[in-house]
Amino acid sequence: MKTSVALCTFNGEKYLRKQLDSILEQTVAVDEIVICDDLSTDATLSILNQYKETFPNIFKIHANEKNLRSVKNFEKAISLCENEIVFLCDQDDMWIPEKVEVILNQFKISPELHVIATNAFIINDDEDMLNVSTIYDIPSKTTKEMKEILFFHQNFCTGATIAMRKEFADDLMPFPPENLFHHDEWIALKASLKNQLLFLNDRLIKYRIHQNQLVGGVIFSEQDLQKRIDKIELPAEEMNSKIIFSFLKKVKRKMLDIEKFRTIEHQQFFDLMLKELKAKKEEISLISDRKFKLLTFFYKLTGKI
Fold first, then answer.
1. 171 near 55, Cβ under 8 Å?
2. What are the CA-CA distances from residue 114 to residues 37, 214, 257 (Å)?
3. Which residues, in sequence order, are bridge partners of residue 198?
C-alpha cells in the first residue's frame, strides 16, 4: 500500500521540524508528503523548502494564493494526495515511529474499513507527557455504538489521528461548510454511517497542547469526562427534564443546520442523517410528552424543540 500524508501549515515554524522528522522516521516509510501552506508569514515555507531539497521525491509543497482556513485547506491537501492510504497530519504534533506500520496492517486485514482514528499521548510545549483524561478515552469507557456517540454526543476522532482510503476521501468532496461540520467530524460521521470506521485505542501520535493551536478541546478533568460518559450511557427513560430538553434543542439545531447548509453532492448522506436525527427526536419526544407534558407543550409552542 502506497501512502500519502496531507499536512496543512500556517505559521508553524516552532514545532514543524519535530513533526516532519517524526514522519520521516517511521518504521514504514511514507511515499509522499503533500503540504498546503495557508499564507504563513513566519519561516514555515523556508523550513518546508529545506526539507524538499533533501527529499525532493517526497515533499510536494503548495502555497495557497488566499487564506483557506483549516477545513478547506485540508480539503485541498487531501484532494492532492495520490496514493491509496491518506494520513491527515497537524503541524504541531509528533508521530510515534510505528504509526504508519500499525495502521497499514489494520487496513490490510480489514478491507471493509475506510477510516481509522486512534488514541493519542498528550504533550505540552516542552514535550512532557501529560496524565490527563481526553476525548480519546470515550470509546473505551462506554458501551454505546460509535455511530450513536458521534451523531448525538461527541466527536472523538480528531483529524490529527485519522487515516483513510483514498477512494473514501474522494467521496468526501466537497467538504460541507465549516459551520456545519469540522473536517474530522465530517469524516467520522460519514464513515460511521456505513460501519466503515475503526477507532484504535493505540496511542500513535503525541498530541501537543499549546497556547497557539487552532483547534483544541481534547482534554478534560477526570470528573468532567465521567459526566460525559454518564450522559452518553444514561437511558432515555431516566433523563431528567433538563437533559431531555437540552438534547431535543441540540437535535433541532442540527436538523435546521443540515437543511440550511446541506450540499447537493452529499444528498444521500444528509437524507440518512436527517432520518437518524428524526427517529431519535421522536423517541425522546414520546418520553418527554409522557414525563413532562406541560413543559413539552411550552417548548413546542415557543419553537424551541
1. no
2. 27, 27, 26
3. 116
- Give me the residue label for grid cell 480519546: 136
C-alpha–C-alpha distance, residues 15 and 248, integer Å: 42
How far is C-alpha 20 from the chain's CA centre?
21
What pLDDT score was predicted for residue 231?
A: 94
**44-54 and 16-24 helices cross at what angle (nearest 10)?**
20
104-112: average pLDDT: 97
Q: What whole-number distance in Å separates Cα of residue 299 and Cα of residue 305?
A: 6
Q: Which residues of 49-65 are buried (b: 16+ CB within 10 A; e: fewer)?
A: eebbeeeeebbbbeebe
159-to-33, 215, 266, 284 alpha-carbon distances in Å: 16, 10, 20, 31
Phi-psi region of 11 (alpha: psi -120 to 50; beta: other; left: phi over 0): left
Give the DSSP per-residue string, 230-250: HHHH--GGG--HHHHHHHHHH
pLDDT grade, residue 215 (50/70/90)? low
Length of the chain as a residue count:
305
Q: What are phi and psi of 288, to 5 degrees?
A: -60, -45
Question: How far apart, in Å, are the Cα atoms of 215 and each of 67, 70, 71, 286?
Answer: 17, 9, 11, 37
Q: What single letter denotes the amino acid at residue 211?
A: Q
Alpha carbons within 13 angstroms on the beta-carbon side of residue 148 total 13
**Helices 183-193 and 69-80, interaxial angle, to 10°?**
60
Which pTM value belongs to this model?
A: 0.94
The grid coordinates of residue 122 equal 498528550
